[in-house]
Amino acid sequence: MNRKRKKTKKDTGTIFNPVLYLMILFLTVQLMLMFVSYRRMSWLSETITDGMTDALLGAAVLEEEELYAYGRSDELQILYPKEKYDIFKDLLRQELGLTNAMTAVRGSVPVVDGNVQIEDFVVYSVNGSDVTVYDFDETGAYVTTIHPGQKDVLTAPNGMSVRESSLFAKIRFQVRYMGVPMNVSRYHMVDIVDE
Amino acid sequence: MVKQKDKGMMEHFLPAMVTIVFMGILWFGSMVTASNIDKSSALNQVTRKYMLRMEADGYLTQENKTAMVSELQALGVEGADLTGTSLTDAGYGNPVTLQVKGTLTVRSIVFKGFTKSMLKEERIPWSVKRVSIAKN
To answer: Considering its fold, how many domains does chain B have in total?
Structure first.
């Protein structure tokens, strides 16, 4: 039997096309997910920066001998940089709810995945116009360099010139943005002031 | 020849209406989630502010304690328990801790039919711990 196929009138594309609505819905879902993820990342950035600032401010405490030297010379010199590093690490760990091995676990700051590493920790000790730099690596070991007459000239990794004794820290960690792991670094610097 | 009947108005508008309803739900859900994130951020700022004051004072003073609890209540924290918080002078160079536990009111979306509100308020456990070194 030879059936002749009847040619039907094809629907013309209109704004009532269901496929179009599906696409709009799909795009809306994507946009809303991105919006929520962005807000979560902003929150994370704020939380991590606050945690770093607080840990650096905590580490900016002076030891007894440093206080004594400050009383004599009226200059805030750092004599115990390793103590500053240890305090910073300990406070950061507690602020972000990390384990002793600096690993994020359940109960840590959300979104952070895996280990948090202190990539760089630098102590700038200003004595007159000289700057002594104690640069810590990821293992916690440090090298000391003296920069004579470099006060106001020497710049920290964040581009700020060193005017006072200060602490600089840079941490690295992994976050999951919309399920995709990403490496993130944050840095911050605080001056050690007597107020 | 049989002429195809034109689609009715309802058939035309149904996908559009369904899309609008779903978009509304998505938008509403995103806003609720964003408001919960903002609340978390505000709570962080409140606890951080009092932590910085504790750093300067060496402990959480009675005045600051009252003010902080009141600010937390305004953000939806009930039954703030400060066990573990430094309430006496720690002294220069010693650790100061701010630890608060309580329940927090958050909003979520639950679908229970078209006649009931989708917005649901629930209480979840909330806690925060901040540490620093006293510089008083």
So the answer is: 1
